[in-house]
Write a structure and sequence with these properties.
Elements (H helix, E strand, L loop, with lengths): L1 H6 L1 H9 L15 H26 L15 H15 L6 H15 L8 H10 L1 H11 L4 H11 L8 H12 L7 H20 L1
Helix pairs in contact: 2-3, 3-4, 3-5, 5-6, 6-10, 7-8, 7-9, 7-10, 8-9
Length: 202
């Protein structure tokens, strides 16, 4: 796993640093510009926390797997130091938990309504690993069946990572002549997961 993270350093940098393609996932309708800005901000903060956590926790807690990507970014550096401290103390067990916490912290600051409970967001952030690994495998030259098999072997919990979802995301990753935008695809997987669950409860 550490080899994978190092080999695809360009994917790590993209996941941490590229501006979020949030418009594709933002709630539709007559939302005010302030609401859209809040959505983009919280989307960015949640995914920064997710990708930092993945890099650190799967990278054998090597701080250099995170810090080079946030140099000069005061918010990013503060978030990284909090992550390191809380992971090392055993307070954060999975990076999806850290991301969900930071998303909901941002939503409270911005007065942005999000579906409850936060536990659902943890599941949805965990599922954003599906496009991350499939995209990495396509960039590495694997064909779709091999990438699906490898992703299913990495993400073994079939309730959390349903084979049908892996297949659907693999189609999105492999159908085009070029790989899709990773950050946008991760956002689509996360927000569709969160919004679908909210719709079922309404």
């Amino acid at each position: 796993m550490l080899f994978l993270l190092r080999r695809f350093g360009f994917l790590i940098a993209a996941a941490l640093l590229l501006p979020p393609q949030a418009n594709a996932q933002a709630p539709s309708g007559g939302a005010a510009s302030a609401g859209r800005a809040a959505f983009r901000l919280c989307d960015a903060e949640g995914f920064m926390a997710l990708n930092m956590g993945r890099n650190y926790m799967l990278g054998r807690r090597d701080r250099e797997s995170v810090l080079p990507y946030v140099r000069g970014d005061e918010f990013g550096q503060k978030l990284a130091l909090e992550l390191f401290d809380r992971v090392d103390k055993g307070e954060v067990k999975h990076y999806a938990d850290f991301a969900a916490e930071k998303l909901y912290d941002c939503a409270r600051r911005q007065n942005m309504a999000l579906p409850e409970p936060v536990a659902k967001a943890k599941i949805c952030y965990a599922r954003a690993d599906i496009p991350f690994f499939l995209h990495a495998d396509r960039q590495a030259g694997l064909d779709r069946p091999a990438a699906e098999e490898k992703t299913a072997a990495r993400l073994k919990n079939r309730e959390l990572y349903p084979p049908a979802l892996i297949g659907a995301v693999a189609q999105a990753v492999y159908d085009g002549a070029d790989a899709p935008d990773l950050r946008q695809l991760m956002g689509m997987v996360f927000w569709s997961c969160l919004q679908q669950d909210a719709a079922r409860r309404s």
